[in-house]
Write a structure and sequence with these properties.
- A hairpin with a 4-residue loop joins strand 1 (2-7) and strand 2.
- Helix 2 (81-92) runs parallel beside helix 5 (187-202) and helix 4 runs antiparallel to helix 5 (187-202).
- The chain is α/β, with parallel strands linked by helices.
- The chain contains seven helices and seven strands, in the order E-E-H-E-H-E-H-E-E-E-H-H-H-H.
């Protein structure tokens, strides 16, 4: 009995098939052959589901003890490579203002944990991030996205309270980031819009404000409303037409039957 490698759509499956002395596979007929096929199918599906697996719930303990050098931690796998590189460049510009800005996405949070709590835990865990020169530490600014619930949060070190008020951080998370995510899962736009808004304030400019909410145009319908139906004379006309449709044929029959 020797093994042979079968090529599947997602992975290669090693199937053990009995071979005869001349190298030809021995076909199993009857109940034994059917049970072997069913067993192979169950094993294949079991391997597939085990390979995919559910998303792991994350907490602050799943992140490194020190602030990583990368500015984009896409644990939720919602950003393309091009989007991650673009966001990385935008985040690096915050270093000019002594700010270590990071974007963190998660696929699923640990039970009972909120994004705000995760952000605060990471601020305490990472503390002040040393800059490239190793002199004065940089203040941390974290933008967090939960891909499962589309929730957002923005937290910052206490040293940034004077430059980035808590009201601004809450507004950025609840409007600037949340609106693009609720409309079409636009993670790149939500992140870049939030970073641009915060960068303007950090550079001493006036807050651009929340995004303009565009109201959906009213749908034109030819179905009358309840008020239009109550004001309409349609019922009267229906009664008149029914009477005319009944009386005229009877009168015509009476005239021509005499």
């Amino acid at each position: 009995m020797r093994g042979r490698l079968e090529h599947g759509g997602f992975f290669d499956v090693l199937a053990v098939t009995p071979l005869s002395s001349n190298g030809q596979p021995v076909r199993c007929h009857g109940p034994l052959g059917r049970w072997s096929s069913l067993l192979a199918a169950f094993l294949t599906f079991g391997i597939m589901f085990a390979a995919v697996g559910p998303a792991q719930a994350l907490s602050s303990a799943d992140f490194p003890p020190q602030a990583p050098p990368s500015h984009v931690l896409d644990e939720g796998h919602v950003l393309s490579r091009a989007s991650s590189q673009e966001i990385e460049r935008t985040l690096q510009a915050f270093s000019d203002e002594k700010v270590d800005a990071k974007v963190i996405t998660v696929a699923k949070l640990d039970y009972g944990l909120t994004l705000e709590q995760l952000g605060e835990d990471l601020l305490s865990r990472w503390g002040a991030s040393p800059n490239t020169s190793g002199a004065e530490g940089e203040s941390l600014l974290l933008l967090l996205i939960d891909a499962q619930t589309r929730s957002t949060a923005v937290v910052a070190s206490a040293r940034l309270n004077g430059r980035l008020p808590s009201e601004l951080l809450e507004s950025t998370a609840e409007t600037t980031m949340a609106v693009p995510l609720r409309s079409a899962d636009r993670y790149r736009q939500a992140t870049l819009d939030a970073l641009n808004r915060l960068a303007v304030v950090l550079n001493g400019g006036e807050d651009p404000g929340e995004p303009v909410m565009q109201e959906a145009p009213a749908v034109v319908s030819n179905i009358p409303s309840k008020e239009e139906t109550e004001k309409s004379n349609a019922f009267t006309w229906v009664v008149v037409l029914l009477i005319v449709g009944t009386v005229v044929p009877m009168a015509t029959w009476w005239v021509f039957s005499r």
